[in-house]
Structures are given as C-alpha cells and as structure tokens.
Design a protein that fits this description.
The complex is a heterodimer. By secondary structure, chain A is mainly α. Helices cover 71% and strands 0% of the residues of chain A. In chain A, helix 5 (134-160) packs across helix 6. Chain B is of the alpha/beta class. In chain B, helix 3 (60-73) links the parallel strand 1 (49-55) and strand 2. The chains are: A mainly alpha, B alpha/beta.
Chain lengths: 326, 368
C-alpha cells in the first residue's frame, strides 16, 4: 500500500549477541517470510499468465487476427487496444475529478469540523459505501441514476455545448462515459475519504495549535498546517481510488453504451469503452484468438495499474520526511 | 451460567438443523417422485445416457423448457444446453464436445466440410425454433406505430433524426407524432437477432441500408446494450427510443407494425411461420439438410418477414449408437406438436408448420 511507509530503521550497535530464540520466534519469522514470498509468487504468476496467454495475440499478424475474430472489425491489435486504454483512463479521470474534492471535504469535515460522535458515525457510513458490491452500483446507476441525471446533461449541452467536451446532443438514455464516471466516483469516494481522514488526523497538533495561536481561523489553520502536511497522503489516496476506477468492470458494463473511438464527447453515447468492461462482455462468447486478444488487453490494464501505483509511491517518497505517512 | 448452557444448546440445535437441511431432496429426485405419483402420463422410457448441446442464446428458454419436459418423460437421460452463442456452439459441435448445436445461422461451406469429416457423414441443419423479431419503441402518446422497411432502415442508419420526420408521418397518416429526437438502440454483442434484422433490411430496403448483414452492428457511435434484456431495459429507460428485439421479450413496450406489400403487419407466430413455409431451401445441400433461405421480401398477406430461424445442428451418423438414439429421440420431441407448443408457451416462438415437421421427421429417421 502506498500510505504505509516503513519507519526509519535504526542502525543496530555492532557486535551484539543474538537474542535468545524460542521455537515460537522461528515459526513466526518463517511464516511471515513465506507469506511475503507467497504474495510475490501470486503476483508473478498473474503477470506470467497474462504474458503467456496474451503473447499469441501480439505474435499473430493483423490479417489472421481480423479473419478469425469478427468483433475486431478490421482493427489491428494496437488499433483495438488504443481506444480501450483511452476510454479506461477517461472514465477513471472523470471519476477522480468528481470524487476527490468531495472526498477531501468529507475527510476534513470528519477530522476537523464534526463533533466526535457524528464524526465516528459518518466515518462508519462512508466505509459502508465501500462494502457495496459493484454490480449493485451498476444496477443503481442504470435504473435510478440515469433518468435523474438526463435533465442536467441536457442543460449542460445546451449552455456549455460550445466546449468540445460537452458537445451535444445529450444522449437519451444517458448511457455515456459521464454517467459511468459518476457511478465510479461514488465507488471510489469511500477509499479516498478513509485514507485522507487518517492522514488529516495525523497532523501534528503542535502545528495546528501554533497556527491557531497566531490568530488563524479554522479554515486558515487547515490551509496552513493540515493540507500541506497531508499533500502527499492525499495524492496517494487519490492514486488508490484511481487504481480502483481503472479496473472497475460491472458498473461500467451495465451503464455504458460502448464504442471504439478516441472520443472526448462525454455527453454522447457509443463513443468509448473500458478495458475491464470490454473483457467482461466479450469473454463468455470468445474463443481461440479472441481470448488471446482479450487477455492482451488485460495485460495492458495490468501494466497501466502498475505504472500508476509506482508513480504514486514515487510522489509519496519525494516528501517522505514531511508526510503523514510517518 | 444458565444463559451459557442454553446458548450452547441453542447453538448445537441450530448447527444440527442447518446440517440436516443439506440432506433435503435434490430437484431431480423430487420430479422423479412427482412423476411416480402422477403415474399414468409418464411412459416407461428405456433411454439412458448424457446428451449435451450448446449454442445460440436465442434458443435458451426454449431449450430449458424442452429439457425439463423431455427429462420428465425420460428420467434416466442427463440433458444439458449451454448458451454460449451460435459461433461457440457450432465450434463445440465440430470439435465433438457436444452432440448437437443450436445456431442462428446454418453451417457455412467450410463448417459443412469439417462436420462431414468429424461425423463421418453429412451434418443436418434442422430449423426448429422460429421467433419473430419485434421493432419496439417507447413513446407515451403513440399507440400504433407503422413503419415501412425503408423508414426503419433510415432510422437505424441515423438518417432520420426526429419522430415527426415526413417519412414516419407518411407511414402514419392522421397520427400526431412527437417532435423529440429519435434514439435507435442496437445490440452491443454479436447476435443472431442483429444478423437477421440487418439481413431483413438489406433485402427489403437495399437503397437505404447499404451494410452487409452481420451479427455485429455495422455502425459506430450508436446507443447499444448487452443482450435482449439489456436492450429492452435501455428502451424502457428513456422516451423516444426504438430498438429491435425478440418478440417474446417485448413486454409492455410498444411494438411497431411493419409494411409487407401494401399492408402493415404486426409480429405474430403465424405470420413468421407463413414466411418459413414460403421460403425455399438453400441450394446444393444434401437431401435432409433443411437450411432455409428466408424470403424476406414476401408480400403475402399476414406474413411477418422480420424473424429469426434458429437451427438444431446434428450429425446424420453418430459413432456412439446410444448417443444417436438420444439425439433422435430429443430432436423428434422438439419437432413434435407437443414440443413446439411447449416452446411457444415458454419462449414465445412460432410452432413449425406440419409440412416442415414431416421434413424434419424424415431427416431424423435418417440419423443413425
């Protein structure tokens, strides 16, 4: 996880005799080590599976691929995966832009504004949101959210349609990437809130009181001492949320009308598609080379998620001394 | 102390009850018991073995009904049908994984050759599931929408943008059409329904529908949903939508009448069966292979040419004689009046005509 950094290791004094070890120590040390090794083995196994099964798709020529897979519609492998990557990142970005300000606001409210009792209750309810299965979110989005959100989309396309992003006409029913992004935002909200809340609670009280003593108002205190302290923690929280949004399958599959284009028209339907939802919808009836192509798209998603997480870790490590992760 | 003792007893009783519920009857033996009790209807059947099929999702509910009824009459037969899609079903059949396939399209030339090798003899396509495809729409105020094939083609090609377009008004004299936008919805997955719909449009409105018939929707940038249920749900979600879907799933949505000849016809089982009767067999096939070339441009009164014919693909010779017997018995049941009635009730299909039934029976006789 990107938020828990190991504490600073003290250099042990030289030539210290080994402490006495009982069988319990040995068993515990061994099981902890093997648990760690097991995780690495599982990760390696997943990566190996994706590479081995996805490789035939890369190795086959485009002609052979398009002849045997008819949902490839004449695209080359890159031409098929490219729009999927674009759609995945677009949906995740929309979710992030919507969820992050709200999540930080909720976390700040819980840590600094709410009375104790309400704060713990609210935290518990937010964590409950994380427990709702994504299929339920998909059903909620498709059956309840869509009719409610359509008038708002129409208003947006009427008044902001001159911006290419909001170019109309707004699709009706709004099975668009924006609706999928809103559902994703609700799904990643609890993750970002929970992690940010922990970070905000760890702000050194001394800094906060110093700001208050200098005459700052509550908001100014937060702006001066809490937010700078929590900055890398917030970034790692949003990266966690981004990771979930990138890989989200069922909610997107049930809400989005898929398309295979590099399109930024988020109010129109049939433009983009998510990698994970695409695999979920195409896999049951895929066979032969089709399966290889789908697993290759899964490999691409795996690599993207890996890169996002590495980037998040790097950001956190840059300000490791002054972060709440200590 | 007393509370702990009662708590322990209650826990043991609950655990025991939960464990014993696992010893309940499983459904197979239950229906067997019912059958024994009902006595006189079940004939003594000596058929045993497993019979597996896979293929088209369009046949799924019909196959489930057939399996249930056939299983009642033949309790020692283990039947299954896996709705993986027509392509997957034909593939499994050609590889020998299943004994019969359900397919929305007859075997291609290549597949026929492979089947001939695999079976050691010809494979037969038997058209045993006929289902009308309805053009469904969601409009509050228009109860009886009528559409000509050219209009349908223009709507689904995106050439008509609003409901009060002159083309639609021409098909509906005297009806006030709303001014809103029209949203056509298609299937996002590869589908036999899409293939039959695009085939219908390309044969009846070739000037307006220039795409080849295909199981994948040929246009980009349209609203789409996964599966028949997805499409129906999408149509219900907003006003002004129009889509094509299996007639049995149309539910409470409005169903358009399509123009056949000079009259507007609504989807009916009889109308679909009429078209199948009129349609010739595909040329150049072995005698008992009943693949049909649907006459989409028929003008017979009451015929409804927007339909889906789903085939049961079988070998004419099975290396395992037991399997051959099972296939014969099952396919005869499906083709019988009872079987077709069951499918009509459960899945909304059109029962096959008597003429087609005698052809199918002749083909089944030739299976060994």
């Amino acid at each position: 996880m990107t938020t828990t950094d190991e504490p600073k290791v003290q250099k042990s004094p030289p030539a210290r005799p080994r402490p006495p070890q009982r069988p319990g120590d040995r068993v515990f040390a061994a099981s902890a080590k093997y648990a760690g090794v097991l995780i690495l083995v599982v990760l390696a196994a997943v990566a190996a599976f994706l590479l081995i099964e996805g490789w035939p798709a890369v190795a086959t020529s485009t002609d052979t691929l398009t002849k045997s897979i008819n949902w490839l519609e004449g695209h080359s492998l890159i031409g098929y995966v490219g729009p999927l990557v674009f759609g995945t990142i677009l949906a995740a970005l929309i979710a992030l832009v919507i969820a992050t300000p709200i999540a930080i606001g909720v976390a700040l409210f819980i840590s600094h504004y709410a009375p104790r009792r309400i704060a713990s209750g609210l935290g518990y309810i937010i964590d409950l949101l994380a427990a709702i299965p994504s299929v339920v979110y998909g059903l909620w989005g498709a059956l309840w959210l869509m009719p409610k959100v359509h008038p708002f989309f129409e208003w947006m396309s009427t008044y902001f349609g001159w911006i290419p992003l909001f170019e109309g006409p707004a699709a009706n029913p709004p099975r668009t990437i924006l609706t999928a992004g809103i559902v994703l935002a609700v799904m990643i909200l609890p993750i970002i809130t929970a992690v940010s809340r922990e970070i905000f609670l760890q702000t050194p009280t001394l800094h906060e009181e110093a700001a208050l003593a200098l005459g700052a108002t509550r908001w100014e205190m937060i702006r001066m001492s809490v937010l700078p302290f929590a900055r890398s923690g917030i970034i790692s929280a949003t990266m966690l949320g981004l990771g979930r949004a990138l890989g989200e399958t069922m909610a997107v599959a049930m809400v989005l009308s898929p398309g295979l284009m590099y399109s930024i028209f988020i109010l129109q339907a049939g433009q983009q598609q998510n990698i994970a939802a695409n695999i979920a919808l195409k896999f049951p009836e895929a066979s032969g080379k089709g399966v290889n192509v789908l697993i290759f798209t899964g490999l691409v998603l795996f690599v993207i998620t890996l890169l996002v997480n590495m980037f998040a870790r790097w950001i956190v490590s840059r300000r490791a001394e002054f972060s709440g992760a200590n | 102390m007393k509370r702990i003792r009662y708590g322990r007893i209650a826990a043991i009783v609950t655990a025991g009850a939960l464990a014993l519920t696992a010893c309940g009857n499983d459904p197979a033996s239950d229906s067997g018991n019912n059958n024994g009790g009902g006595g006189e209807t079940a004939a003594e059947s000596d058929l045993t073995g497993t019979l597996a099929g896979s293929g088209a999702t369009s046949q799924e509910s019909a196959q489930n009904a057939w399996i249930a009824k056939f299983g009642e009459a033949n309790p020692d037969v283990d039947l299954s049908y896996d709705p993986v899609g027509s392509g997957g079903g034909r593939k499994a059949f050609l590889e020998g994984g299943v004994q019969f396939a359900g397919s929305d399209a007859a075997l291609t030339e290549e597949e026929r050759a492979t089947a001939k090798e695999k079976c050691g003899a010809d494979a037969y396509d038997l058209p045993l599931y006929i289902s009308p495809i309805a053009v469904v729409y969601n409009l509050k105020d228009v109860k009886n929408l009528q559409l000509a094939p050219a209009t349908i083609a223009k709507i689904f090609d995106g050439k008509i943008a609003t409901w009060n377009d002159p083309a639609i008004a021409a098909d509906n004299p005297g009806v006030t059409l709303p001014t809103g936008a029209i949203t056509p919805i298609n299937r996002s997955d590869e589908s036999g329904t899409t293939k039959n719909f695009t085939d219908y449009l390309s044969k009846t409105a070739p000037a307006d529908w220039t795409y080849k018939p295909d199981g994948n929707w040929p246009r980009q940038g349209t609203q789409s949903a996964n599966g028949t249920s997805g499409v129906i749900q999408a149509v219900q979600a907003a006003e002004g939508t129009i889509a094509y879907a299996d007639h049995s799933q149309a539910g409470s949505l409005g169903v358009a009448k399509i123009k056949v000849g000079d009259a507007y016809v609504e989807p009916t089982a009889e109308g679909a069966a009429k078209v199948v009767e009129e349609s010739p067999k595909v040329e150049g096939l072995p005698e008992h292979d009943l693949a049909i070339d649907l006459k989409r441009d028929t003008t017979t009164a009451g015929a409804y040419p927007l339909l889906l014919v789903s085939y049961i693909v079988v070998c004419s010779k099975y290396s395992d004689a037991e399997k051959g017997k099972l296939v014969k018995a099952y396919v005869s049941y499906i083709a019988s009046e009872d079987g077709q009635k069951v499918a009509a009730e459960e899945a909304g299909s059109a029962p096959i005509s008597d003429a087609l039934r005698s052809d199918v029976d002749a083909a089944v006789k030739a299976i060994s």
